[in-house]
Amino acid sequence: MTSIGEDLLPSTRRALLHRIAVAQRDGRAPSLVAAVRREGRTAWSGARTGVEDHGPDADTQYRIGSITKTFTAVLVLRLRDEGLIDLADPLEKHLPGTGVGDVTIFQLLCHSAGLGAETPAPWWERTPGDLRPGIADVLGDRPQPHPAGHRHHYSNPGYTLLGSLVAAVRGVSWEEALRREILEPLGMHRTTSDAVAPHAGGWAVHPWADVLLSEPVEDLGLMAPAGQLWSTTEDLLRFAAFLTAGDDRVLPAASVREMRTPAAPVEVGASGYGLGLQIVGGEGRVLFGHSGSLPGFVAGLWVCEEEDVAAVVLANATSGLPAATVAAELLNIVVEAEPRIPDSWRPLRDVDDELLALTGVWYWGTMTFTLSLAADRGLQLTPLGGMGRGSTFTHRPDGTWTGQNDYYAGETLRVVRKDDGSVDHLDLGSFVFTREPYETGAAVPGGVDAEGWRGLGG
């Protein structure tokens, strides 16, 4: 099969088709389907298949493996937003008797609870879920090989616990909560727990011969929240749009932004992990999403918020085709070939003179910064010459600002005034910013040498 899509240039469409054609051939996948969303709609979709005159399309289901975890994380964040749980709560508070109840919900979401990566044998992805009827069967005799909170250690059983948490708090099954709270509001009618035709079959390809072996399709039981779902490229692009902008029927923008914020320390050189989302950097941009695999299937979904582009790749092979890598490459092809046209510059609607007076050059010690005014009374602190720490700040009703990123994330910026009402300095997490370097008369900690600036000569 070739590709469809009128929103991209012919050269871009050909580059995308070429990439998936090479991926399907070199990865020896029986079939592959891919799609790209840009600026709110599907811009391209394509497929390749080893079966002549028969291939998948945007409505063909594949198993998506661990992309399921992102859906489970959304359900948990909904509970938090409704005030039914707190992410700092120990699991025991809402799901007693697991044996690992001291770990927090937050740690489970970002894989820092120290739990094992897999269940005890037999291999859970290839055996019926009824072999693990209880939490103890999922966790095993040594459920926590690492101390909680010390490192990121990816854990499939951890997401089983989160699925059970959702069921316990909601009083309905994880599947029912998923359908009612995410799939139906977002119109994801082709995302299901069990395969619904048309769907691809799962295959293993012999490593040294071009022959196939059918993989079993199992109901994962308690492990379903870690990897059960089937979906299509069309549905997953809808989900990508939600993960970019939020949807008040499911989760507001602030909560999905929280999901894609790095939340746990990772090994040197590893990609980051938020709350149910992987975060990777490369090619000068940050992507968030998730990879997925189950015997017979591989999947990848990546989103670039800055460029408003998302890409998904689904294939029905156990190994050989790095679906997540290919999805990222499709995204990068579009961004590099057809960079997003930026929005027009527009002046602010309203300006507060006192706020405007704060803009310009400020000094922390001898380091130079600029303070700029942003929309909604926000501020942007930028180091000059690349030296120093910057951040964006959002305005709070009490007249202070909160840092949104990097070193100053969560820190408070406030204006300190003199008795006459004039500005003395800015206080940022106890750091003093003045209009002149070590300004005389300003409340600089430690005071300012009365002799002032001078040279070394006598």
Keywords:
Beta-lactamase; Beta-lactam/transpept-like; alpha+beta; 458 residues; DUF7586; eight-stranded antiparallel sheet; 24% helix; 11 helices
Describe the SSE topology:
Layout: E1 3-4, H1 10-26, E2 31-38, E3 41-49, E4 62-63, H2 68-81, H3 105-109, H4 135-139, H5 156-170, H6 174-183, E5 203-205, E6 212-214, H7 224-227, E7 230-231, H8 233-245, H9 253-259, E8 272-273, E9 278-282, E10 285-294, E11 297-304, E12 309-315, H10 323-337, H11 353-356, E13 360-364, E14 367-373, E15 379-383, E16 391-395, E17 401-403, E18 412-417, E19 423-428, E20 431-433
Antiparallel strand pairs: 1-3, 2-3, 2-12, 4-7, 5-6, 8-9, 9-10, 10-11, 11-12, 13-14, 14-15, 15-16, 16-17, 17-18, 18-19, 19-20
Helix pairs in contact: 1-10, 2-5, 2-6
How would you describe what is shown here?
Residues 24-331 form the Beta-lactamase-related domain. This is Serine hydrolase. Residues 351-435 form the DUF7586 domain. A hairpin with a 6-residue loop joins β5 (203-205) and β6 (212-214). The N and C termini lie far apart (84 Å). The chain is globular. The protein has eleven helices and 20 strands. The protein folds into two domains: 3-337, Beta-lactamase, CATH 3.40.710; 353-433, Beta Barrel (Lipocalin), CATH 2.40.128. The mean pLDDT is 94. It is α+β, with helices and mostly antiparallel strands and 458 residues long. The strands form four sheets. The protein has an eight-stranded antiparallel β-sheet, sandwiched between helices. 24% of the residues lie in helices and 22% in strands.
